[in-house]
Amino acid sequence: MSLIYTDLLFSVRKINPPLVNLSVEPQPVLEDNTVKFHCSAKANPAVTQYRWAKKGHIIKEASSDAYETIVDFTYFFEPISCEVTNALGSTNISRTVDVYFGPRMMTEPQSLLVDLGSDAVFNCAWIGNPSLTIVWMKRGSGVVLSNENTLTLKNVHQEDAGKYVCRAVVPRVGAGEREVSLTVNGPPIISSTQTQHALHGEKGQIKCFIRSTPPPDRIAWSWKENVLESGTSGRYTVETVSTDEGVISTLTISNIVRADFQTIYNCTAWNSFGSDTEIIRLKEQGTEMKSGAGMETESVPMAVIIGVAVGAGVAFLVLMATIVAFCCARSQRNLKGVVSAKNDIRVEIVHKESASSRESEEHPAIKQLMMDRSEFQQDSVLKQLEVLKEEEKEFQNLKDPTNGYYSVNTFKDHHSTPTISLSGCQPEMRPANKQRVPTGMSFTNIYTTLSG
């Protein structure tokens, strides 16, 4: 009896509604990629039905324990649910998907129209995964005004009017932005060229550009004793045109005379917040063109003059540099000749017999050549010979056995040094104050020079 009771109790315990587990693969996943949901269940009695839903809405095409689909950003906050049913009941389990997606706008910002001096508040809400960054900036400016969903501008001025951008960035995933406008009610603002041009004798126009919110109630042109808001008066006509950027008022003058170029024109605009005025002058276009042509004509000779002056200066500098270089080189050569003159003096070793023979041969030749030359050349040679003898005395102790040259004193007794006598050609008188002329020539060099 107890055995039957135990078997019955064990069987009752095994009967239960389904135990369900829901898995999602892969996770995280980028938007527009495929994921697979798997709904595993343990049930006794057996499972009779699987039902899938998204945010409470039945997915009719899914009826097994698995569901595969392409996910978008909505799967991040709209859960997928799996419901498993058997004879004892049903079990439902839900899960969201960790989807990476770029910024999605949750609250659209609205453009604003505010009065001068009041506050302007913009709201801009984004959602993104992973966490995003919000930046508020004015269009055309790189200044960050806010990193929050809300942008508040205190005590606005007309300069604050313009386009504002709310930008959201999800790192390495994507970015998005929205643009809104801020319009500030205030007095008109006139922005026109203060000097405009026209041709003498032709029809001319002066334009006045007006930005105004609200639009101007009145626009008037005035000059001298005249005031004109619209229509035609004599040679003058006023026309006003509205554009997306503002209002353009044009004063047209027919048959322009010289006095029109001396007149000051006032453009004034009014609205409920105030007024603005601009002073405009008219300039003769022909005069400016002639002046420009004259300046262009005069600029050519000036360029030529400058070019010639620069060229002459460069040429002068090159010439001076050449002269200085030549003088320096010449001075160095002269200095080198004087310094090396003593080093060029050598006394050649000869035997007494050959020296006497050479003297007998060279002496008549030198004498004959000297007789043929002018008195000036003879005097120059005598000076060089005299200097050479004095320099040879300074080198009496010179001795170098390796090249065949010895001191003059060594052979003083043998009279081996050749001597040239030019007494027959020597002039009768020599000035006592003549300076010594340096020379680096030996007897042989002098002979060679005279023979040449």
From TrEMBL:
It is found in: Membrane. One of its GO terms (cellular component) is cell-cell junction. Keywords: Disulfide bond, Glycoprotein, Immunoglobulin domain, Membrane, Transmembrane, Transmembrane helix. Pfam families: I-set, Ig_3. PROSITE patterns: IG_LIKE. GO terms for molecular function: cell adhesion molecule binding. GO terms for biological process: cell-cell adhesion; synapse assembly. Residues 17-98, 103-183, 187-283 form the Ig-like domain. The chain crosses the membrane at residues 300-326. The keyword Transmembrane applies. It is a single-pass type I membrane protein. This is Kin of IRRE-like protein 3. It comes from Thamnophis sirtalis.
